[in-house]
């Protein structure tokens, strides 16, 4: 049952609104002035607040400002018998959800309350989703290697410096890129990812820079590339060591001039993009072999971050095991499982050539095949599956 607070100095209006809304199965509380309402909101949770504007001592706009401080995510609907456009505009600017004039129209009130409740639900769902996303990109561990990695992210993230992330497959290079974006000033702007290894060399330029209609056989309409789509935000070039030399030349130009040109076009388009790149290759060796441009390497590697292999931070395995158990059980709709100490000891003996990605797969396998508690015997039976 949704909880509604009505703030109005006229008893007849308070009681009438309470009768109507109670009949509609809302739980209604009443306050006859602003000070009483602020105390009630500080001590209770409400889903929607209806507030009169013309009240003695503290008017509705003052009350609204106070409510924004203590319950900014609760929709406030302003009501007034002395309303005009200026008052309504001011109320909306100060954060009101809507403005309704007296005499009150029953249908308008009920529809506005329903819309306010729908908005509140969406805000709550958005917060939950954001928490889930943020948890997905948590850096789990207390080892020296992870602490140093986190320190580097904290220093680098607030800047616009380009970052090159290196490390073996499965270590979490994408996770590091996401963390840098989440802690940057660009967090409210797009994070766009391109897997350079997964896109054929003949298509990578179109993917990055877009194309004009008719620029090649299948170009039936104009298309924006990833540089344009990430304007104002972060562009993550994963596995950049697999990018063709021709595409590398265009990326270099984009970094130098902050401009791109679509395939088949001649118009220069300004872009404001922070580029983060990642690779599992030794780019110094690739430069010697003539497979990677040295000038692009130096453009990308303003900051170099090496992500440690799991074998270099085995002390994090107990925390990682519990982290993945919690996540996977939640995803599968299973009750939480525990893991025995001797099972952890057994996990510490394994060689994780596939790093975090392999470790997560092992935990998922143990959850599916094991019992309520993952045991040492489970590790011996299932953790080594498919490793030969």
- The tally of beta strands, per DSSP, is 14
Spatial shape: extended
- CATH H level of the largest domain: which superfamily? P-loop containing nucleotide triphosphate hydrolases
**Rounded mean pLDDT score:** 91
Helix-strand pattern: EHEHEHEHEHHEHEHHEHEEEHHEHEHHEH
Share in helix: 40-55%
Strand order in space, largest sheet: 2-1-3-4-5
Distance between the termini: 57 Å
How many distinct domains? 3
Query: Which value, in Å, is the CA radius of gyration?
Result: 29 Å
Largest sheet composition: 5 strands, parallel
> CATH topology of the largest domain, what is it called?
Rossmann fold
Structural class: alpha/beta
Q: What's the CATH class of the largest domain, please? A: Alpha Beta
Task: Note poorly predicted spans.
Answer: none
CATH architecture name of the largest domain? 3-Layer(aba) Sandwich
Q: How large a portion of the residues is in β-strands, by DSSP E?
A: 5-15%
GO molecular function: ATP binding
Protein name: Sigma-54-dependent Fis family transcriptional regulator
Pfam family, one: Sigma54_activat
Organism: Ancylomarina euxinus
Care to describe what's here?
- This protein is α/β, with parallel strands linked by helices.
- The protein has 16 helices and 14 strands.
- The protein has helices at 11-23, 34-43, 60-70, 85-93, 106-136, 144-156, 173-182, 201-209, 226-229, 245-257, 283-288, 294-300, 317-332, 341-347, 355-369, 376-383, and strands at 3-7, 27-31, 48-52, 76-80, 98-101, 163-166, 191-195, 234-238, 259-261, 268-270, 274-279, 303-306, 338-339, 373-374.
- A five-stranded parallel β-sheet has the order 2-1-3-4-5, with helices on both faces. Strands 7-8-11-6-12 form a five-stranded parallel β-sheet. Strands 9-10 form a two-stranded antiparallel sheet.
- Helix 1 (11-23) links the parallel strand 1 (3-7) and strand 2 (27-31).
